Amino acid sequence: MSDVAGIVLAAGRSARAGRVKALDTLDGETWIARAVRAQRDAGVERVLVVLGEPHAARIARALPEGVRWVRNPAPARGMLSSLQVALAASDAERVVVSLIDHPRVRASTVRGLIAALDAGALVARPRFGGRRGHPYAIAGDAIRALREAPLDRSARDVLLGIVPALDVEVDDPGVLDDLDHLGRSSLG
């Protein structure tokens, strides 16, 4: 799967959380390490992490070996700006995009999204229990549209304008997790 790159978006300030989410732990592993591992275990060899101030240096030191990172110079511009920074740093034509807020995503979900790209999908997203979640996978024209999109739009809005996304049914409740659903008691 060397033609698929992974992107992990972790440039947020974590202001609402009151702590550095990427460095939180779950089952003894940081959220950033879990996001990278889910992609690597799915066969994604090239994983790129997007970081931003004020936490970039701390998170960069915690990254698993061999993981590249890039800095978003202005993460306050929004998640699309981080995605554009990553896409500019990557020449990949097929990408799986993970969010740091979803630390329980399984490698099998990432494999399922890649299989959807293999079958010709330009946008694939997981669905569990009738609800869509993260990560998502994109290819070709979807990547180009995101690279060129104005920052006043969201990635979701841009992708909705491309083609209908392929929903991939998964047996992974982790695709619905985010910081709001993970209580402090579940953090290790």
UniProtKB/TrEMBL annotation:
Gene3D superfamilies hit by this protein: Spore Coat Polysaccharide Biosynthesis Protein SpsA, Chain A
Keywords associated with the record: Nucleotidyltransferase, Transferase
A GO MF label: nucleotidyltransferase activity
Superkingdom of the organism of origin: Bacteria
Ranges for domain MobA-like NTP transferase: 6-159
Species, as recorded: Sandaracinus amylolyticus
Protein name: CTP molybdopterin cytidylyltransferase
SUPFAM superfamilies: Nucleotide-diphospho-sugar transferases (SSF53448)
Cross-referenced Pfam families: NTP_transf_3 (PF12804)
